[in-house]
């Protein structure tokens, strides 16, 4: 849909700031380097509303970062790399930059921020006191609460079939434990 040109990347960055303020919060276009070329195709989300309200690395990575990167890169044809900063809740989006493979992405090894979790879903999933509702839930609750496993062990390697893959991994690990 969009050819991966400097113009397309800068155009999308310019559109992101005014049209996604309601979703992610205040942001600004910033100059970035893509393949050795400086361009204004970066967007710095000063404090991501989604990340701040969820307080959950897993929700940020699995419900925002990976799907958004996948959509722009594979559906729109315009590469996008998102780099969340879990310390200050900011996020940098770079249009025109090919995202790293999941296993090479620093976000894939970011541990759970369980003492910061605010969302109902996160609090529910991280609570070790709750009874097992799903066959795979015990192992997830134990891992999340203990901060023993980085996200690499909990999230998909391939996006298209992520739900099935996660369930298969959790069920396999639950049998071992």
TrEMBL record:
<dbReference type="GO" id="GO:0005506">
    <property type="term" value="F:iron ion binding"/>
</dbReference>
<dbReference type="GO" id="GO:0016853">
    <property type="term" value="F:isomerase activity"/>
</dbReference>
<protein>
    <submittedName>
        <fullName>Beta-carotene isomerase D27, chloroplastic</fullName>
    </submittedName>
</protein>
<dbReference type="InterPro" id="IPR025114">
    <property type="entry name" value="D27-like_C"/>
</dbReference>
<dbReference type="InterPro" id="IPR038938">
    <property type="entry name" value="D27-like"/>
</dbReference>
<keyword id="KW-0413">Isomerase</keyword>
<feature type="domain" description="Beta-carotene isomerase D27-like C-terminal">
    <location>
        <begin position="22"/>
        <end position="103"/>
    </location>
</feature>
<dbReference type="Pfam" id="PF13225">
    <property type="entry name" value="D27-like_C"/>
</dbReference>
């Amino acid at each position: 849909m969009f050819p991966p040109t400097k113009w397309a990347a800068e155009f999308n960055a310019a559109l992101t700031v005014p049209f996604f303020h309601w979703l992610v919060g205040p942001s600004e276009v910033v100059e970035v380097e893509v393949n050795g070329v400086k361009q204004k195709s970066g967007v710095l989300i000063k404090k991501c509303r989604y990340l701040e309200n969820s307080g959950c690395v897993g929700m940020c990575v699995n419900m925002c970062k990976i799907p958004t990167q996948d959509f722009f890169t594979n559906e729109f044809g315009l590469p996008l790399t998102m780099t969340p900063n879990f310390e200050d809740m900011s996020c940098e989006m770079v249009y025109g930059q090919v995202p790293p493979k999941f296993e090479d992405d620093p976000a894939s090894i970011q541990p759970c921020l369980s003492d910061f979790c605010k969302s109902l879903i996160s609090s529910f999933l991280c609570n070790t006191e709750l009874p097992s509702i799903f066959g795979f839930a015990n192992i997830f609750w134990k891992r999340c609460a203990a901060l023993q496993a980085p996200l690499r062990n909990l999230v998909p390697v391939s996006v298209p079939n992520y739900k099935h893959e996660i369930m298969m991994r959790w069920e396999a690990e639950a049998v071992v434990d």
